[in-house]
Amino acid sequence: MNNRTPKDGAESGGAVEIAYRHIRSAIVTGELKSGEALQEAKLADQIGVSRTPVREALQRLSNEGLVVLERYRRGQVANFSMSEVAEVFRLRAKLEGHGARRAARRITPSQIDHLEELEREMESIFAKLGWHGHLSQFDHLNNEFHATIASAADSPRLDRILASALELPPSIFNFYREPLEDRTRRTHRQHREIIDALKAGNPDWAEAAMNAHLLSILTDPNPEPE
Amino acid sequence: MNNRTPKDGAESGGAVEIAYRHIRSAIVTGELKSGEALQEAKLADQIGVSRTPVREALQRLSNEGLVVLERYRRGQVANFSMSEVAEVFRLRAKLEGHGARRAARRITPSQIDHLEELEREMESIFAKLGWHGHLSQFDHLNNEFHATIASAADSPRLDRILASALELPPSIFNFYREPLEDRTRRTHRQHREIIDALKAGNPDWAEAAMNAHLLSILTDPNPEPE
DNA sequence: CTGATGAAAGTTGCATGCCAAAACAATCAA
DNA sequence: TTGATTGTTTTGGCATGCAACTTTCATCAG
C-alpha cells in the first residue's frame, strides 16, 4: 500500500498539512459530527497518508480544541455547548479588541486594502450563494479578515492564540435562532465599521467596534454572572 | 539499542510526556539557551526514547511558543525579546484579569485555602533559599497559583490558553534590572491582595489587582504606542 | 434477564527504517 | 580572498511493525 506521491498536483505543505486540512474541513463542514469517534487508521487510509501525520494533525486539532484526545482512547470531535461558544467569543472580544486597538496605530494602507477586498468578496459570495452555500468560503475569508487585523497588531503570540485556541466550527452558527441572513448582514456592517475605525487610526473606536462585533454573537441572553 | 522500560518507577505519563518535561525543563532552566538547535535524534538518544515522541513533544513546545519549528529545518529554542515579554504580560493581563473577575464570583472556599497555602509555600521557600535557589520551585508554585484562579473562572479554554500559549521561561526575569528580591517581595504582596479580592467576592477589585500584578512586570517604560 | 468476567479483536503508543530536503564541506572560477 | 557550485553528510518527514492498552463480546453465575 505504498501511496507515495512525489509531486501531488497543487500540494502545498507535507502530509501533516494535508491530513490537518482534511480533518479540520470535515469537522467544520459538519461531515464529522460532534462526539464522533476518530480512528487514526481509518482517517489515514481515507486521506491517503500514514498514521504518523494523522496523529500529528489530531494533536494540533486537539490543541485547537476541535478534537478531544486521551491516552489510549479514540479521539473524538469536540462538542460545543452554548456556554462554551459564549466564552470563546468573550475571550476573543478581549484579545481581538486589544489587537484592533494596537492595529489602529500600526496597520498599513495595503493591509487596509486587503481588508476591504476580503470584505467585498465576502459580501459578493453571500449575495451570490446565500448563507448555506457560502458557509465554508465565508469561514475562510472571515478568518483571514480577523487574522489580518491581528497581524497588524504586530503580536505573534496574539496571532497564534487566535489561530489555534479560539476557533470554532462555523456550523455552530446553525444553532442560533436568529435568522442567519440577518446575522450575516449585521456582520458585514460591523466589518465595515471596523475598517473605518482602523482607517481613521482611532484605537478606542477600533477596540469598541471589534468588541461590538464579537459580543453581538451572544444574542441569547446569558443568565450567568459576568 | 532497545531501552524499553516496562515499568519505570515513578513514571506518570508516556514517552511523550517524559520527552516534553525533559526538554521543557532544559529550556526553562537555561540549560538549553535561546537560539540553540534542537536535533531530534540527539534529544531522543539523550532522553532515552525514540524520535517519534520527541517530535510530538517538540510540536507541543512549538505550540507553546518555547520552540520554533519549520519544515525540514532544525528546531530552535525560541528567544524572547523584551518587547515579546512585554506583550505576553499584556495579553496575560487581559485574560487573567477576565479570569480573576469571573473567579471572584465562583471560587470555592477550598480553592481559596489552596491559594493561601501556595502563597505561604512560595514565601517560605523564598525566605529559606533566596531568589536564585528558589527560581524553579517558585515557577512551579506560581504557575499553580495562577492556574488555580484561572480554573476557578470555569473556562476550560482560558485554562488551555494560559497553560499553553503564554508561558515564558522564568529565566527571563534575570534580564530585569530591578533587584530580584524587591520584585519578589512585591509579587508576594500582590498575590495576597488578589487573594483578598477573591475572598471578598469583588470582581472589579479582583480584575484590577490581577492587572496590577501582571502589568507591574513591565517596569521598563515602553515607548511604543499602546 | 442482569451484571460480572475474561478472552478476542481493535486501537493507540512507540521504535525503527528509508527517503528527500537541508546543512555542510570541498572545489573551482573570478 | 571570495563567491558560486557541486558532492557528501546530516537531519527531518513519513510509513510501517510490534507491544501496550482499551473495547467489545461471548460466557456464565446469580
Describe this structure in words.
2 copies of one chain form a homodimer. By secondary structure, chain A is mainly α. The first copy, chain A, has 2 domains: about 15-75, Winged helix-like DNA-binding domain superfamily/Winged helix DNA-binding domain (Arc Repressor Mutant, subunit A, Orthogonal Bundle), CATH 1.10.10; about 80-215, GntR ligand-binding domain-like (Four Helix Bundle (Hemerythrin (Met), subunit A)), CATH 1.20.120. Chain A is built from 8 helices and 3 strands, in the order H-E-H-H-E-E-H-H-H-H-H. The first copy, chain A, has a 3-stranded antiparallel β-sheet with strand order 1-3-2. In chain A, strand 2 (about 65-70) and strand 3 form a beta hairpin. The longest helix of chain A has about 45 residues, at about 110-150. The termini of chain A are far apart. The interface of A and B includes residues 52, 90, 91 and 101 of A. Chain A binds a DNA duplex (30 and 30 nucleotides) through helix 2 and helix 3.
